[in-house]
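re: that chain from earlier
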Amino acid sequence: MIEETLNERHNTYGVFADLARTTFAIREVIYAELEKRNKVLDPDQLYALEMIIVKIGRLINGDASHEDSWKDIAGYSQLIVDRLNGRLR
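^ sequence. v structure.
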């Protein structure tokens, strides 16, 4: 069962170590820029960014046409927009 899942993820998202390197590199740039600006994000904003970074890493290393990754990016962004407008979900 776990072998099937890991093989499926590999086929969709690429080699895990490559994904980790890409994701970490993007994350480092974002955190460095936030620190340079002395900028602190709300926890939900930071978490949404973290999840979006993972999705971007997957798109770069794996199947860029994987629709769910694009939907996830839009979804995390929408959750922040909703919260900023007083709608919590």
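The helical segments are 2-13, 16-36, 43-61, 67-84.
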